[in-house]
Write a structure and sequence with these properties.
By secondary structure, this protein is α/β, with parallel strands linked by helices. Helices cover 27% and strands 28% of the residues. The strands form two sheets. It has a six-stranded mixed β-sheet, with helices on both faces. Helix 2 packs across helix 3 (57-72). The model is unreliable at 1-14 (pLDDT under 50).
Amino acid sequence: MPNFAAQIPLVPLRLASLMTPILSDLQIRRRITRLAYQLWEANFGLTDLRLIGIHGGGYRLAELLTAELARIHPTLRLTLSRLTLHKPEPLAQPLTLDLPTDSLHNETVVLIDDVLNSGRTLAFALAEVLRRNPARIQTLLLVDRQHPTFPVAATFTGLTLATTLAEHVRVELPESGEFGAWVL
């Protein structure tokens, strides 16, 4: 089995030994395919679907899902957008969504992030999307840590994982190279 912890860039060697692999490259790719099929099945009959990735890992995951959905259902019109917010303090800077203000009206939206911890990031992102009056919002997460502090839940999840509050989940979805997820 490859040592995925050693493949993470910019991680001090002393931290690499503390990382426990939870998803390999192949496992993440399979989960992305499964999640794409779940999205397609849950939205069967729609002609348009808006995917909004939360800046960082969520946006990269949304890119990968968009490509997989296009492969599965080439006639489905997919629109990919990015929502940017300051995760440590969401109110410290304005949230930005790279769309006109009225663009989500009566649309089906899938809000995507890589890891759900307390639900704080997703809650602030949902508030921004709700202001635009979509017809339906679904949430998709690659890893759900099950530590909700805010009343949000994932509609679609790649992996539900029991962790301690002190642990951190790191997901890497590089443009080139292997994907991986670890618990620190």
